[in-house]
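Appendix B, example 12.
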Amino acid sequence: MLGRLMETRDDLAAVVLRLGLGVVMLPHGAQKALGWFGGRGFTATTDAFVAQGIPYVLALLVIAAEFLGPLGLFVGLLTRVASFGIFCVMFVAATTVHAKHGFFMNWFGQQQGEGFEYHILAMAIAFALMIRGGGSLSLDRAIAGR
């Protein structure tokens, strides 16, 4: 089963997708896990999620998906799992937090929050990676090839 999960083709487009998604998602995960880039850090983030009624275990999964997921994407390890986690986080964020602000990002500071256009892009890339896998230059390909 693990072999099928890691199976992937010699696909350069998948490499571009996973590196792009990893570069975009890692700073968000680092905000939550480490407090970098103006983030709150692990304890404050989990406390904020719990205060919003989100179970602690789900808060941990969000942080793992946003921080560990991009690290997996960078090396192409468990690409489908990492992509699934990111897809889930983006879907929940888009539908529960950002949908009320409309489609567009807050480019000109004229709305109360950010729209969900970014989330659609992240979900589309994550979904493509769930289908294609890590592609060439991935640990998934090296491991599944044995």
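The chain has a mean pLDDT of 93. Residues 2-144 form one domain.
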